[in-house]
Amino acid sequence: MQIFSANLIGLVRATSVALILSTCSAFAQEEPADILSVFGQFDTDVSNENLLAALEDAAEAGQPIALWRLGVMYENGEGVAADRSKAFQYFSQLADGHANTPPKSLEADIVAQSFLKVGEYYREGVPDAGVPENDDLSRKLWLHAASYFGDPEAQFKVGQLYLDENEFGYSPLQSARWLALASRKGHAAAQATLGNLMFNGDGIPADPVEGLMWLTLADRNAHGTEDEPWITELFDRAVSIASQDQREQAIAAADTLGSRFGG
Q: What's the pTM?
């Protein structure tokens, strides 16, 4: 049986880390890369155990992509036993160490999403990690992701917080401002929520045509997603109330602006 030296094992890990990070960096602007899937494209024989070790080495060195991927793996139980405590620790390390990452940088997307993740964990607390529930900190984390990074999911969440008296306080106008930011980036849930507010005039001046336009875009963008049922319900309700002229104007506007806003 061949015995590998510690130096050789270290070299294999280092090579794996370099290969993973250099490959995944090209995908970082669109969405967090699935490192395990990407790694499988190469003609190399690295076991899951060695791959996990390589990711851990990279995470220990503070590499954002490795921290993100390990957090996702432990959160979902992908190749490892699900462990919310470890997932929280990796996401927290990513958020803490890279809070000032430039918004347009390669890692900005996964850093912003780490703020979202940590905020979600604080909503429920992580008893195994000794982390208590902390809604105030959760709100601050989401607001940082929404304002500094301009993350559409975070902007949607902040918009929701302004519709809850127990969160930021009920303020439809503030909610609409945040929802509009996310809506222009093609976020279907934000488009539906904004459209519903505008169509019905819930706390803001009613604009049935623009409201129905956003609902139309949301209905198109939500197709095949988990948000589709409730978005379709809001859309169908608005369509049943709107006049023929309002429907025609809304559809025309959605057709014109759809390419800009994801519809």
A: 0.80
